[in-house]
Specification:
Helix content is 44%, strand content 11%. The chain is an alpha/beta fold and 344 residues long. It has a single domain, classed as Aldolase class I (TIM Barrel). The strands form 3 sheets. The chain has a 6-stranded parallel beta sheet with strand order 2-3-4-5-6-8, covered by helices on one side. The protein is globular, with a radius of gyration of 19 Å. The structure holds 5'-deoxyadenosine and FE2/S2 (inorganic) cluster.
Length: 344
């Protein structure tokens, strides 16, 4: 298929045969068309609206040891922190006054936050901010734990699958972690009734185009409400310290492909995208993304949540990011809205 046929077919069918997906992933010749078509579809479904999620990075303790991640257990150069319930609630209050109607509680897999503690925090946020969506992103748990958080008032859950290929998964994670359990978590979350977010890093070490095709097929099966992708970015204190960063171009191409596959999906222009290029998030919006997740964490802990190097927005106050974002989103041709921003 020529580039135009590839893009037209994807837009019409929301999928492609394996060989066509591989061709589209590997060429830059379809990019201009692909981005234009993705933006047309995003505007047809969501207009120019950009949804905001206030991200609260509430703990950087983690019991896991993922080879790519800067806050992995064996990184002893990290200064570890936890936010108290009061600190988390005051982030929410500040976020609310800045116009955020979704709070994302993200952290490493930190055993200090037992189900009881986490449910206590969720139900307190639910009570104080009844009009807001509560999103959790705290990793792999049992189905019973996910159910407990849901019953306490959580609505959404972010858990990237990272890669849907078994062999590739095993090269990114120690043997204590498995793709099988990761997938089990995602299907459990969906069955319980969460709006679920999955996703992968682009250009992570050893990733092949076939691996990315496998990610697309997995996403077609899971049908998540949200899909978060960003370039892999290296961190000096991980086993992957000498591995190159993922590519901006391939990340943008995948964003557009995902928009055409899932016209109604919530797709963030991620912080990693903004880190690999100063205009990365704006380019992401123009390639089909419709969500931005600004940081609401207290300024003094931001530098400590360093999943990768040179992360943006670590020196800014929440209010500074808010006004900076409005300007950036507008300059890119869209507008931020005060809304929970559920999927259409
Ligand atoms: N580069 C890019 N993204 C990373 N993540 C973790 N480490 C890195 C890295 N070095 C992503 C993972 C995780 C999300 C919270 O951040 O995909 O799910
Ligand atoms: Fe944080 Fe621009 S979004 S400073």
């Amino acid at each position: 298929m020529d580039p135009k046929t590839l893009v037209d077919t994807l837009a019409a069918e929301h999928t492609l045969p394996d060989d066509a997906f591989l061709a589209l992933l590997e060429t830059d010749e379809a990019d201009a068309l692909l981005f234009a078509e993705a933006d047309r579809v995003r505007r047809a479904v969501y207009g120019t609206d950009v949804y905001l999620r206030g991200l609260i990075e509430f703990t950087n303790f983690c019991k896991n040891n993922c080879y790519y991640c800067g806050i992995r257990r064996d990184n002893h150069n990290v200064s570890r922190y936890r936010l108290s319930e009061e600190e988390i609630l005051s982030c929410c209050a500040e976020g609310y006054s800045l116009g955020y109607r979704t709070f994302v509680l993200q952290g490493g897999e930190d055993p200090y936050y037992t189900d009881e503690r986490l449910c206590g925090i969720v139900s307190e946020i639910r009570e104080r901010f009844p009009s807001c969506a509560i999103t959790l992103s705290v990793g792999e748990k049992s189905r019973a734990s996910y159910q407990a958080y849901f019953d306490a008032g959580a609505n959404r859950y972010l858990l990237r699958h990272e890669t849907a290929d078994e062999e590739h998964y095993a090269r990114l994670h120690p043997a204590s972690m498995s793709l099988e359990n990761r997938k089990r978590c995602l299907y459990d979350l969906k069955q319980i009734g969460y709006q679920v977010g999955a996703g992968m890093m682009v250009g992570s070490p050893y990733q092949t185009t076939e691996n990315l095709l496998c990610d697309l097929r997995f996403l077609e099966d899971l049908r998540p409400h949200m899909i978060g992708i960003g370039p892999y970015l290296t961190h000096r204190d991980t086993p992957f310290r000498d591995m190159p960063n993922g590519s901006l171009a391939l990340t943008l191409r995948l964003l557009a492909i995902l928009r055409l596959m899932f016209p109604r999906a919530l797709i963030p222009a991620t912080t990693a995208l903004g880190t690999i290029h100063p205009q990365g998030r704006e380019m992401g919006l123009r390639a089909g993304a419709n969500v931005i997740m600004p940081n609401l964490s207290p300024k003094d802990v931001r530098r400590k949540y360093e999943l990768y190097e040179n992360k943006i927005c670590t020196g800014e106050e929440a209010a500074e990011c808010r006004s900076c974002l409005d300007r950036r989103v507008e300059a890119a041709g869209y507008r931020t809205v005060v809304s929970r921003g559920d999927a259409k």
